[in-house]
Amino acid sequence: MSLGFDLTQAFFNPIQHSAPPSLTKRQTKISVIGTGNVGMAIAQTILTQDLTDELVLVDINPDRLRGEMLDLQHAAAFLPRTKIVASVDYSITADSDLCIVTAGARQITGESRLDLLHRNLKLFSNIIPSLALHSPASILMIVSNPVDILTYIAWKLSGFPSNRVIGSGTNLDSSRFRSLIADHLDVNAQDVQAYIVGEHGDSSVALWSSITIGGLSLLTLLEKKDIAYEKETLEEIHRAVKESAYEVIRLKGYTSWAIGYSVANLARTILRDQRRIHPVSVLAKGFYGIEGGEVFLSLPAQLGRGGVLGVTNVQLTEEEAQRLHDSAKTILEVQSQLGI
Amino acid sequence: MHRNPSNSYLGLEVASAFFKPIQQTAPPSPTKRHTKITVIGTGNVGMAIAQTIITQDLVDELALVDVNADKLRGEMLDLQHAAAFLPRTKIVASVDYSITAGSDLCIVTAGARQIADESRLNLLHRNVSLFSKIIPSLAKYSPDTILMIVSNPVDVLTYVSWKLSGFPSNRVIGSGTNLDSSRFRSLIADHLDVNAQDVQAYIIGEHGDSSVALWSSISVGGVPVLSFLEKQQIAYEKETLENIHQDVIHSAYEVIRLKGYTSWAIGYSVASLARTIIRDQRRVHPISVLAKGFYGMDGGEVFLSLPAQLGRGGVMGVVNVHLTEEEELKLRESANTISEYQSQLGL
């Protein structure tokens, strides 16, 4: 691909007394592992939102990988100038600020996230050490399911400190939760503070007691105004959130757009050092009385350029704390069967 | 997402408990109608377009239509689930065209997927019959809308849509060579190590094998490239230029061969056109328009890409780009290629 003549020098005249470009602060670089529907939705959203200077794609299928890279590159004139590269070789990921792992088997309709585990564990033994080797200072973000256990595995395999390994966790669940509540109250979802924590899966915990809208506690308001609500109603909303991914998979075969926005949102907070709180899968040992073993699950965590800055000290009711412990146990049981 | 009464878990009294109205208000007045875009076809292209439009916050309402009810609902839900990460946008979907009513812009992507190495013109017969159902419905529900055709072969299908809709020609366009030109600019920009947005370069004519690269009017940072080369006495070969053009023509085929289809690039391309139209940007884009009367093309009614100024009302005019004799000839040949296929349709 050559014009056959060097035009650059003919087009531009350098200014007087200049020196070669100094080494400016290193450019931001994000690697996305896995160019399936999820990986590409994440990559494309990151690109559209102009979050990085360099975007790297890695996959085992070289044809699809190259096709996806070209399809993004072809949009260059519509986007801010971003370097987009791809390779089956992990050396291309060197010096990434953030590595996002989406590689893994797709969740089949009706298959619980935990059933995917064995298929993905083997894959990670190839992926994670390569990423850690080429980007020893990177932040690792795991998206593949079951995300909590795979984040734990990634932590073990990478040898990274725990603040640099996170899972996308319940960031999206919480967003769906906030949207459902916002919808009923006819408010903007961004005015709703609401967390779903614990396992990204069937045992997730909805923190009803700490939901606020425009700063007002939902449950306290309901009690004050003597508005009767039934526990079942609240459980239904939570169940709707848990079912929503399965519903989309049943209808279109997979999910992509929502998780794409969710992960791009996390990437922005990290790369731009936003110090926002997101419910993401972190090392939960020591929080809320979770002492049983080393487990990753979603807690409201403050994120920034260095990764996890800390976990928010949200007040849980006894029941919520109990459910969180149950969720941790669920995950630990499966982890113990892996023998890591 | 709008409230579903049968799922009214928390009850309306909760909403009113949260907010107190201020004194002396009246019910909300009907403000200027909100902007609405409809996308027909929720395949890879339609969804890439829809998602890019939403990410770029271009509309208040997005409507999706497809024949496959399950896929349609799944795609709608997948976008709705991202609500907390996006500006508040109403996203709806239905197999019924009534949902498209009042659209400012209707983008048609429905049609058979282009198979590797299948020329765009071979798709034609498969898509014309589909359009006889789609276009009249869109025109009926949104008589003032702008119709944008993306399905291939785009030039002929834009002509077909114009005929079927009964719309004036300034309100029917095809995505045309907007993306080809963008790829072209990127290749040139790449070689000169400049930003693609500093490169003005058009590929016009058929969105296909007979497209025409307007080498004589390429400029970089305002400097016309070819005349500059001549002045500087830098030698170049015509073949080199032709190779770059061929690269552009084949790039779509290459992506299709590698990943099965194209989606992201066309998504950005169409979202860029949507922005120019909805926000009345009056920018010039190479898109498929009624070409009769331009550059000596008087033969028949044919749509092909020309650099056209676009705004809220659609096509405002075609730019008076200066073509060399050779470029004009190639453009007329391109027009003939398209006319031939059109004549076989008997429209």
TrEMBL record, chain A:
This is L-lactate dehydrogenase. The active site is at residue 200. Pathway: Fermentation; pyruvate fermentation to lactate; (S)-lactate from pyruvate: step 1/1. It is an enzyme of class 1 (oxidoreductase). It catalyses: (S)-lactate + NAD(+) = pyruvate + NADH + H(+). Residues 28-167 form the Lactate/malate dehydrogenase N-terminal domain. GO terms for biological process: lactate metabolic process. One of its GO terms (cellular component) is cytoplasm. Keywords: NAD, Oxidoreductase.
From TrEMBL, chain B:
Keywords: NAD, Oxidoreductase. GO terms for cellular component: cytoplasm. PROSITE patterns: L_LDH. Pathway: Fermentation; pyruvate fermentation to lactate; (S)-lactate from pyruvate: step 1/1. The active site is at 207 (proton acceptor). Its EC number is 1.1.1.27. It catalyses: (S)-lactate + NAD(+) = pyruvate + NADH + H(+). SUPFAM superfamilies: LDH C-terminal domain-like, NAD(P)-binding Rossmann-fold domains. It is an enzyme of class 1 (oxidoreductase). Belongs to the LDH/MDH superfamily. LDH family. PANTHER family: L-2-HYDROXYCARBOXYLATE DEHYDROGENASE (NAD(P)(+)), L-LACTATE DEHYDROGENASE. NCBIfam families: L-LDH-NAD. This is L-lactate dehydrogenase. It comes from Protea cynaroides.
